[in-house]
Amino acid sequence: MARFIDAVTLTGRNHVLLEPLRQEHTDELLAAAADGELWKLWYTSVASADAALSYIDKALEMRDNQGAMPFVVRRKSDGKIVGTTRYFNVDAANRRLEIGHTWYSKSAQRTGINTEAKLLLLKHAFETLNCIAVEFRTHWFNFESRAAIARIGAKQDGVLRNHQLAPNGTLRDTVVFSIIASEWPTVKAHLRWMLNKPRD
């Protein structure tokens, strides 16, 4: 049976390359997560050094068994891996998917990296995969993530209360956002404007 999402490298004009995740990326991903000790943020799922291999194994298992496609995010200016992101929760029959499992090194935050990565992922989803909707989800308490998702043009659909059990035993309320196909041209124009506007 053909995959809905084939392995593909997505290349931005200025900031990023998105490459399919491989086991060989482990050391570079660990170095990226260490920039800001991202695993210490209790509301995220960034892997610590001890859990990195398991994190990558699970991502590749999701790719092989559930049709997901995990990527590493490589910064074009210096060639360093600065994070990871993923297509997952793939519903090929209804041409829907989710973008998530996204995190960036501290040094890559508040740059054009996330904006260009989202532009590449959304363009591929809507223009190559012909998706009718792309979803984003985040923890209720991840206020930075919620703001970033809204800033790219996604609209909040609702909140799934007590949606998941977190590793620390707390209950996660999940905020759900989406972009639908009819909104994509406007969102694309907005993302391109964000990439081209002068930065403070």
TrEMBL record:
Residues 16-176 form the N-acetyltransferase domain. SUPFAM superfamilies: Acyl-CoA N-acyltransferases (Nat). InterPro entries: Acyl_CoA_acyltransferase, GNAT_dom. It comes from the Bacteria. It comes from Rhodoferax ferrireducens. Coiled coil: none annotated. Pfam families: Acetyltransf_3. The lineage of its organism: Bacteria, Pseudomonadati, Pseudomonadota, Betaproteobacteria, Burkholderiales. This is RimJ/RimL family protein N-acetyltransferase.
